[in-house]
């Protein structure tokens, strides 16, 4: 079922839509998404990474933010952390090992 819920999350524009289509609570949808992202990030290799970027994304009514580290050339998300703080930025940069 979790694989189905992940496919729904990838197909819709919001967690609320995923919640309606899967009959899960918002918290359950959020946990499914968090586990999927955690698994995907753990599998990703940083081999070939040349240029990384930081971004912040809001969700909900625009008051909740996450900070995102992404590969600018490969167009892939490397890491996501809650908040848009200096500490969040430090955590993201620490995810990239020294060459």
Automatic annotation (TrEMBL):
Pfam families: DDE_Tnp_ISL3. Residues 53-94 form the Transposase IS204/IS1001/IS1096/IS1165 DDE domain. InterPro entries: Transposase_DDE. This is Transposase IS204/IS1001/IS1096/IS1165 family protein. It comes from mine drainage metagenome. The lineage of its organism: unclassified sequences, metagenomes, ecological metagenomes.
